[in-house]
Amino acid sequence: MPELPEVEVTRQGLAPHLSGRRISEVVARTTALRYPLCEDLGAKLVGHTLAHISRRGKYLLFQFDSGHLLIHLGMSGSLRLASSKEAAGKHDHLDISFGEEVLRLHDPRRFGAVLWIAGDPEQHPLLAHLGVEPLSREFTAARLAACLAGKRTAIKPAIMDASIVVGIGNIYASESLHRAGIDPRSLAGRVSAARLGELVPAIKTTLRAAIRSGGSTLRDYYGCDGAAGDFQFQHRVYGRAGQLCRTCGSPIRMLRQANRATYYCPRCQR
DNA sequence: ATGTGACCCTGGATGC
DNA sequence: TGCATCCAGGGTCACA
Fold first, then answer.
1. What is the pLDDT along chain A (270 residues), one digit of tens a residue?
2. Please, are residues A5 and A59 in contact by the beta-carbon 8 Å criterion?
3. Residues A155, A72: one domain?
């Protein structure tokens, strides 16, 4: 579910409510997430003040004086702010209370992760080998070209590879390639510098537009206020197989790459 | 060394 | 209505 835009919308929504607030209670209802939830999370968090919330790729990092809480939303996770009076529902696995306000993790498929990091988060195995942030100045066509040189995989799975560039999942990979006019089956190492020069700004534009629209809500994703995103209504190709390309009128096609659905316009993307 | 597929899990949609 | 099958925003692992 959540790709970079949804995670960033969540971060932006939570930060003003929770930054500088002190944790009063932690309730874990399951430990069976992607990684077993650490047992003494309450002892680590209660009484500590949240300094701020940052994001690295699709990971959220909650910074405390004593360490960092790392949260990944997996395929179906969402974080919302609830009142302490609201009863937890099915799949509400974790509550972190800041007085009356409760940060509640909901994740039906439990592919998400909650980890405590005592040391430097950048050195953590899950974060240490991540690629460049796509919305940073460091994400340039030259840098992408260097990463893709010699790669014999297709361009679409290549830009979803978090060791190259983070945050681009299945929706925004298809969307960005359509915006750039690149066939998703093109060999990554063979895409010309000129085309990468189109692709990099296409990725940035796509992600920024999605963030502005509150992300894409297909099924499970909701922002921290419970509101759905709007970007799914602006999808150019994702989920639109058989419908007409908004640019040229050709029917959108679907194919499978690395076991994931890819959507593209055969006329606009060559 | 790379790249692809199975798998983790639940639930919604679809088809018989 | 019920059951079986397939599919889904991610990431890791075992294999070719």
1. 699 999 999 999 999 999 999 999 999 998 888 888 888 899 999 999 999 999 999 999 999 999 999 999 999 999 999 999 999 999 999 999 999 999 999 999 999 999 999 999 999 999 999 999 999 999 999 999 999 999 999 999 999 999 999 999 999 999 999 999 999 999 999 999 999 999 999 999 999 999 999 888 887 778 888 888 888 889 999 999 999 999 999 999 999 999 899 999 999 999
2. no
3. no
Q: Stated in angstroms, how far is A259 CA from C4 C1'? A: 22
**Cα–Cα dist A176/A268, whole Å:** 12
Q: Is A258 within 7 A of strand B by CB distance?
A: yes
End of a domain among A128, A160, A191?
A128
CA distance A200 to A177: 10
The answer to whether position A134 is within a domain reads no
CATH number at residue A24: 3.20.190.10
Residue A124 sits in the same domain as residue A160: no
Domain termination residue (choose one: A128, A152, A168): A128
Its domain, for residue A12, covers: 4-128
Would you say residue A133 lies in a domain?
no
- If you measure CA to C1', which residue is closest to nucleotide B11? A108
Q: Is the CB of A263 under 7 A from strand C?
A: no
